[in-house]
Amino acid sequence: MIRTSDIVDVIVGMVTALPQAPREVDAGTNIARDLGLDSLAVMNFVMQLEDRFDVSIPMDRLAGIQTIGDLAVAIADLKGR
Amino acid sequence: MTILDKFQPLQGAYDAVRAAGQDPFTVCFDAVLSPSEATLKGRRVILLGTNNYLGLTFDGECIESAVEALRQGGTGTTGSRIANGTYDDHAVLERRLAEFYGCRSAMLFSTGYQANLGILSTIAGRGDHILIDADSHASIYDGCRLGQAEVIRFRHNDPDDLARRLNRLKGAPGNRLIVVEGIYSMLGDTAPLAEIAAVKREWGAHLLVDEAHSLGVLGRNGRGLVEQAGVEADVDFIVGTFSKSLGAVGGFCVSDLPDFDVLRIACRPYMFTASLPPSVIASVTRALARIQEEPGLRARLTGNAERFYRGLRAEGFVLGPQAGPIVSIRMPSTEVAIAFWNALLEAGVYLNLALPPATPDNAPLLRSSVSAAHSEAQIGAALAAITAIGRELGVVAAPASRAEPLRPQGDGPRRASMAAAPIPVAPAAVAETTL
Question: Which residue of A has its CA nearest to B433?
Fold first, then answer.
């Protein structure tokens, strides 16, 4: 069972590699606003995460996700199904 | 603070586009003269961005059929078929479509957009799973949003990625519906349908193919990519439009499933909108016959498309991966794309400006659609204008200064970088705007 905090660490690592990443990235970072990603870029970033964690995040779940922490919780939940 | 404040960033982006010249989203022609020509502020322009693939909008027989139906059946149906009833001509067109595809049933919709909205939101219900290509048209995304099914995107034209995602669903209850397009509207590439059909069979899923841009364009009999790829037996639903190769407006879905007609009392975008007027039904019925009687139309379209694509490629433009009726030129920046589009309109060529995030790979595009109705002279004039402006703006090098590596041959690296984008995206889809 993968822990949410481990997922957060992986996402933070991937986000930090983005060219436009802010200096401070943590579970509270807002994916669209703080990372300057449009809705399309968010969905494509999520696709990379899906491959990393071997999970599919349905599009309606994405609507409720704002922060890296939200995303990690969703992935942990889907992994635990 | 008003209810429209949320659109301020969009308004800002729109203002920036308009400040650079003409408004590309509200071009108003004085008159449309033919499938390939219009006048704009008193000057003739070549229409190279109107999806009029077979040039049937001015077909004499289609016009005569429409005029006769208009006189006999009136200007409109004034309501939906469940409320106001079906005109015999609606039923005839449905039968002709079903026969054309060799299916049991066909259902008409008032637009192609509504066909996707209606079918996707209805056939996949709560607990079902829809797997859509990431580059799907906005109507597919919107149809998914209107329904209750779980929606999963797979990487554009990647059957292995589709299979991985189906594998992740292993054990979950519910039906699986795979959705792909015959020809994708932004880059003009086709789906690897034989491979996708194999994945569908392996996983016991249903398959829907949107042939909006490929009906009448692909296949020996014009039945689209499904016919060309030889997978008709694997496809459960074909969705299409009357507003491209058939030269009118409206949409449809055909299926061989025995209970398909129950959708007429379940599908809200079918039930609660006015049905197509008699004149449109008449011209579409005639146009459907024309594409079967005249394979020469398809041959002319293919000839024009290949000439245009090869002409641009020879000049060094970065294009989509396949020659076809949709030819998109990749622009180095939004600023150059806007300047290029304006200069082309000034030079008498109208095509489409497609800006991120509505485009794959976040690249601005000049998107053109070739028609069977384009003359050799028009294709030549468009090629000359695009080349001259491309050189002036530094998008391509002039022949004297052009080094060999700048001329990609076959699957050259520059084209490949566009064709195989590392991160596939969804044109005109996710984003609520196309700006």
Answer: A39
Identify the structural domains of chain A with CATH numbers, from first to last.
4-79 (1.10.1200.10)
Same domain, B306 and B211: no
Specify which residues B133 forms β-bridges with.
B154
B317: domain CATH number is: 3.90.1150.10
Indicate yes or no: CB of B357 within 8 angstroms of CB of A54: no
Q: How many CB atoms lie within 10 A of CB B221?
A: 14
Could you report the predicted ipTM of this complex, rounded to two decimals?
0.91
- B283: which residues sit within 8 A by CB, 6+ positions away? B62, B63, B65, B66, B69, B246, B247, B248
Give B47-100 pLDDT, tens digit per residue: 999 999 999 999 999 999 999 999 999 999 999 999 999 999 999 999 999 999
Q: How far apart are the first and last CA of chain A?
A: 10
Q: Do B151 and A59 touch (CB under 8 A)?
A: yes
Nearest to A40 among B150, B155, B431 (CB): B431
- Cβ of B431 and A47 within 8 Å? no
From CA B48, how far away is CA B412, in angstroms rounded?
Answer: 26
Give the nearest partner residue to B426 out of A43, A54, A56, using CB atoms. A43
- Residue B234's φ and ψ, nearest 5 degrees, are -95, -10
